[in-house]
User: Fold these one by one.
Assistant:
Number 1:
Amino acid sequence: MASSRKNRALYIDQEAYAALALLKSGILSPVRELMNKKESDKVLQSGLFNGSSFPFPFILSPSGKTNESILLSTKKGEILDLICEHDIVGEIAVDEVFPIDPHERLRQIYGTEELSHPGVSATLKRLGQYAISGKYTIDTCRIDITKKTIEEAKERIEAKHTTAIFMAANPLHRAHERLIRQSLEQTDLVVIFLLKPNNNANLSYELRYEALNYFVQNYLPHGRVVIVPLENIYIFAGSNEVIIDAIVAKNYGCDRLVIGQNHAGIGMYYDHSANKSALDHLVGIDIELSIASEYVYCNLCKTLVSIQTCPHGHHHHISYHAESILELMQQGLLPPAVLIRKEISSLIVASLYPNRFRNLAKLYYDIMPINGLLEERSEKDFYTELMNLYQTTSLT
């Protein structure tokens, strides 16, 4: 974006850019602009904005000495450029600058300021001492594309009900598959908001999309599931995550939201002689919310079961912990097919370990059954066939 004048500037990161774009495009409605001091204090006291749930003040408080200097010296009405990674992505007309407590801000978002909590340390580094409010412009083209994708999907099948699922799929496992199928039984269209990571600690978004899209295209009814990207930024974290999920899903055109029992934000707590959760504070958001059962593999039932219906004890259950399944694949091991579909684990391991074998063709034809034709095979094909051999039972 080209600047029409030589403005001073605030420097923001990708997380702030993504959050500002969501706000400007209406995806966080009823909040549509940065909150000033009075609005922030009111949200802190009530947990509401214009009568609807909103868990914490939506403010912009960029860190860094340069940003702090600009904020302390700016005047009301001044236009500041917003710069992200050397590009001008928008501008803001200054209305108010006010001090904040970064540690209190962490408690608002995460429910804690303990640095051992995932995300707290990273968020603290990007928080400044001052916040700014005012009208702003910013590029929202990526969100506009997502809106259009969902709307076109709804129109194609004339969907009366659209269900949202927020998913990291890091990696996609059998319990994820069951959740998606179960949701399809109750709705016309499922929108999977696939979370895009902001660091390298996860599988890349592209690889997770490829795996999820493979499942959708090959094992689900055509046209009834759409995958869209969602930046996995700081607002989708902590004890209030489910409230933000509900707001985002509603504003993207979904009338239902399905979450898992271990979803952040629905943990129970005890208050005034009653059990409560964040769901008790969901006010003014017109969306039907349901909590899916937790699924495990039972070694006596010999299948994927809900813990609510399986009669066997937890010592017979294999849980679907994405971190542990991913760790196996990061070590180059193929997880059992009861945990993750072999075509998907083959896809991921082949991507994590490219060109792993010195002579793949020889290894393939030495140990795999073939139909007599010489065909070029990929590492993904090799892993898939290797899993088939693992599942052979006559000699085991």
Number 2:
Amino acid sequence: MSHHLVEFENVRFRYPDGTEALKGASFRITHGESVGIIGANGAGKSTLLMQMNGYMLPSAGTVTIGDLQLTKKTRPEIRKKVGVVFQNPDDQLFMPTVHDDVAFGPLNLGMHAEKVQERVLTALRTVGCLDLREKPPHRLSGGQKRAVSIATVIAMDPDILVMDEPSSNLDPKSRRYLMNLLKKFEHTKIVAAHDLDFILEVCRRCLVIHDGRIVADGPAGEILTDQSLLEENNLELPLSLQSRSVPESVVARFDRRQVPE
């Protein structure tokens, strides 16, 4: 399904202050893949995500989403295909009620009121927050805000779900709920995170970014159990694998989860 395609070809991005955040990033993600993007602070993770629906445009190289190459002209259409959940839910929730926040996107697509209502209820049921629909977002817990911010994206029915640090500031119960929720999604999922245990649990494929370049790409179970590779890129083994050697059975368990063609 070409509309689920995400392809970066030698993408570079330079901020106005001269900082070069991406230095020739290239990769291809296809239908149904669950892909984690990991790297140290400043490696370029968030900048990479912001290219995926045109919040930023490449300084050089090409970003292709489905059949469209990202440009100022194609950006509105691409934003219908790619839903981004920001690191801070407060950047995404700004309406008087949860219902209004989730309805905002579909309404701006010009949908009929009945269709919008259907989208809102479905999205809130999906994330387990239907009972919160009349609450003001600022009264929600961190975990509830995260779930509702995901609902605002689901309501747009994107082909591709992109998340930046989705488990940050969540308590263990909320984090586990989010993991289970994401594992049920049929979307193509792209998740950038410092939480390597989260990536190991949710994603089948993993990209390592270092100094604006993709330096490793492979099955998550293989990448995230490679201590030497992680240390070379200023990362550590997932906490669940630290303080003990990684048994072959762990690597085999994750390697058996095939990355989609």
